[in-house]
Design a protein that fits this description.
The structure is a homodimer of 402-residue chains. Chain A is an alpha/beta fold. Chain A contains 11 helices and 18 strands.
Chain lengths: 402, 402
Amino acid sequence: MSLIVKKFGGSSVANAERVFNVARRIIDDYKKGNDIVVVVSAQGDTTDDLIAKAKEINPKNPSKREMDMLLASGEQISISLLAMAIETLGCPAVSLLGWQAGFETDSHHGISRIKRVNAERIKTEIAKKNIVIVAGFQGLNKYDDITTLGRGGSDTSAVAIAASMKADLCQIYTDVDGVYSADPRKVPNAIKMDEISYDEMLELASLGAQVLNNRSVEMAKKYNVELEVLSSLEVKPGTIVKETVKMEKTLIRGVAKDNNVATISIVGLQDTPGVAFKIFNKLAQYKVNVDIILQSVGRDGTKDITFSVPLDQGQIAVEAIEGMKEVLDFKSISLNDSISKVSIVGAGMESHPGIAAKMFEALYDAGINIHMISTSEIKISVLIDAKVADKAVSAVHDKFLG
Amino acid sequence: MSLIVKKFGGSSVANAERVFNVARRIIDDYKKGNDIVVVVSAQGDTTDDLIAKAKEINPKNPSKREMDMLLASGEQISISLLAMAIETLGCPAVSLLGWQAGFETDSHHGISRIKRVNAERIKTEIAKKNIVIVAGFQGLNKYDDITTLGRGGSDTSAVAIAASMKADLCQIYTDVDGVYSADPRKVPNAIKMDEISYDEMLELASLGAQVLNNRSVEMAKKYNVELEVLSSLEVKPGTIVKETVKMEKTLIRGVAKDNNVATISIVGLQDTPGVAFKIFNKLAQYKVNVDIILQSVGRDGTKDITFSVPLDQGQIAVEAIEGMKEVLDFKSISLNDSISKVSIVGAGMESHPGIAAKMFEALYDAGINIHMISTSEIKISVLIDAKVADKAVSAVHDKFLG
């Protein structure tokens, strides 16, 4: 008998038929004698519909506290319907809102962090043999106000419960059946992994693989919660995410593509000390997340700096730099928003120096030009033109894993 | 400076435009220096939409606890949108769910009674000069589970806050601009009343006038909360409901019609003791609400009993009686579901014995046949054919108030 936490996303409970599907999956494991806690997101497009309602009232700047109050109603609907469905199928269930389930958060409305999960109520309901259905994404701050964790927060809710209750397994149900070595819709011979380490998963998630929310993987790593990513539609094993993973013959875990990238080039900067500091300090003030930075020596005692930022922060970054014209002497600034980042990830990479060369060879063979390169212990990323990104992913994937 | 509780129904906040209308009404009174607590129902058809969702899961018997969890999300949406709108218009506002506002109820899910309103949080927000927006219809039981008060419960929520905080006035905004001597859509010369007593309002509400929820009037009477029924669309005084009302020249307050009536006639009962007891005891077991009872002596040592019940309980009542054939000897039973109850209400009636005769005269002049009659200290009701009910209301209204 195990304690299993299961998380289902909004599309898994989008209508009555899917709610019953999810209910049956839950009941299968319950009837095997397991204790079950389920975390659910809001149904289908509910959150988007609620945001649209708020925009009708205030398109630009609705109160963050009231947004949380509004959005938290979405999970309230899905948890009650799922509990009803389970009861209709003959098993005992009880739904709990974030605050009832003991989610204590800080007060950063819209992007709250979980401080603690006081799981007493959940434990009481488990002891009564109830299947416990918890609203993901939401909690309560110290003023007794409703907070939300931000998009993707339900994954984090599930891991937080699993950590707090020392669950045996935390299953994240998605519309794919596991973690693949590349996007299986784009790369036909992508390989499903049986296991992957937290660190590898973190790199893949942040690189746009979009299987698991990054905060949830960080939390799972911190509290050593074993995760399983699996299909909400088919009954078959998924991919286990845990601390150490058995070595396989491939050194590369996966290839990921991220289109949410823009690059900014500042050309003809005076080559004097402090220029880079001034630029990136200003960008930090504007809360721009800079990823890869490249500095090159230009002509006539000038230099050029190119850096990448998330796509939606590109314009802000350009405006921030242009506003420094008086203190920063440069010739021109340009924004390129047709950029993709393609990355390979693998924990074995560090001890094998030939990996980067092999990746560049694959891109060269495919005729793809590399704009920028970045490496860490377990990944190598290149920035390339967005229009050849899918081709690049296939070429790199086939080179290592084909 | 006064403390005013205001209640707005679902149609008053059905869309963004109406939410802003309500926000402006509230702000007008706030800017006069009043402390304002607002109780809101769920938007427009939200509650019906949520019920439809539950019926997709379980058409017959969804869990009552989970229904309350589900339905309570409706007000969560409307309170947050209204608070956003008030803030957008430049005034401070904060929304509170039933449990945050201190509504403690019993555990009868779907029809909970308010045990106590612990208004500490509301007082704290008022002290911060916030306009407080409270979710009507909902509370929390001693197990920390969400409960609802049943349809029309938001009126009761508003009165409960007014009672708990000793508010100066509790304003109930509706789609009519006050309480009329008859339905103004049917009776053109119906008179709007400036004032009406709690008892008169109770009789009118229970007789189908449908302006105020009965439980709210009972609670207002118990705690002596002054109510005002007024228009959510036009800015003008409504009708005040309070304990004692100045005598006016008219003895009759109003004429009400109730179509939710059926009559059942049991013909040819043995004229032996205990027959009535057996019948009405059985109906009580089936939770049928019997209103008017008429017993007449029949022929050959038999008697007939006719009684009225709510329309939707007619069939249940007939089946209950037919199931007694073995212990109850009667010739036939019939159901008449084309019946209306027309009533006149007025506190001055008791001391004026001619009132009933005047009502019957009006009906006689209009050629309307009376099936049954019932009287109390402040009302006289007759049951007549449904198809002549509007004609009867006009005739009686014009006789007394025309």
